[in-house]
Amino acid sequence: MAGVSSLVKTHPAATQTLLARLGPQKVLTDEATCFAASFDNMRLSFMPEAVIRPGVEDDIGVVLKLANEHRVPVTVRGRGTGNTGASSPIHGGWVIHLDHWDKIEIDPISAMATVQPGAITARINELAAPHGLFFPPDPSSLKHCSIGGNIATNAGGLRAAKYGVVRDHVYALEGFLPTGEKVRWAAPLRKFVSGINIRDLWIGSEGTLGVITKATLKLVNKPAARRTFLIACRTDEGALEAAAELMGLRVNPAVFEFLDTQTVEAAEKRRGSRVFTTAELKGVEATHAILLVEIDGHPAALAEDGVKVRAWIGRHAVAFRETDVEAEAEALWDIRRTCSQAMYSLGNAKLNEDIVVPFRSYVELIRYTREVRDRVGLATPTFGHAADGNFHVHIMYDRDNPEHCRKAEKAIHEVMTKVVELGGAITGEHGIGIAKSPFLRLQHTPAEIGAMLAVKKALDPNGILAPGQIFEPLNVWEHRPVKVTLAWDKH
User: Fold this and answer.
1) Which of 4, 201, 268, 344 is least enclosed by beta carbons within 10 angstroms?
2) Residue 408 contacts residue 378 (beta carbons within 8 Å)
3) d(CA 26, CA 172)
4) What confidence score (pLDDT) does residue 196 get?
5) pLDDT beyond 80 at 281
């Protein structure tokens, strides 16, 4: 793997010392275990020397202190659902694996959940639901991803526009500094302003500033009702202009998703059927864009918003469906859930960026993605969260075709440069990891990056935690992913 092998050094003496301290049940060095911990959903594999599965918190302190003494790189891992390579040990070393730390405690009076980092996000909601509560952030991998990874990337998901992102729902964190000392940032309290807010530095730091062992989360009242609308618009531009209008009507959708015409075409191909029939489309035969809107809350408020949404639909849609029945809503959601895997009908590899642009730039962005498609000859399907401008722009290509690889690299650079020119962000919920490391300097000035590195140096003076992530550019398109089937590939 070009450009990576030179970064990896082995530390056999340190690993033997760790084995002696913690034992072979906790320190695993076999090839199969190390390989399974060598990649995330990006599937670029970098083999560690050992995988540590701590039994108690003190084990983590032991690992980190030995790592500092021997300068061993350490990467923290949950369930590997991330899309940016942030849990890939690109410098080798040790992986602290925390998927088995998955305890969840619900406090219905305080409306809080105390969770370990390996807890699956959907499971938190399963336990909160009987108390009329839920944890709103819902990345598309919520049935598989762990809360530690959600915190590490400040994940958002479909409900972020109404309910906020993970940072808005974290009261307190516990864990270890990279140097091995136990710390607690804030407390299980609704108010806490004692000292500098390191908690929020940890959130979104992608495992570079500390190891999370416990989190106290804010839960909110589960909405009493919801209503779902699936809407076909004649063009991409028309759909995005309609999206901006709906937000201006002061309707606050819980979910508001956009699928461009390329995405709809790919999804229909995977489904083997049209989303809307010819009769529903009123004679519009061309592939169309789709908006998926869900409103929730008290039934009275829902009825009022429903009137506004239906009037809005009447001005913009060529077809629509509506339901307040759970099973029917899930059927409407099917096309959105199909999107990620449907992309592969357009190419066997993809560069996927979770960019964000302001409302005023929606139409310009989608036109630019089509310009790139027409100029380089590669599909650029785009879908995502219309309520907050967080779109997933894809460059689809044939990895075995050198010309395609060259064009894909050119195209992704052009898209990311355009996003920043539009006043946008190179990532909204996935993080930088290694996937977006080549673009960090498009977004930030040398002074800004210098300040980030100063914080990193202060908390991790020996640079042992997640070295190479975020700040060291790595051209991921030059590396070939491993061919593996993961649990979420079937969904």
Assistant:
1) 344
2) yes
3) 28
4) 96
5) yes
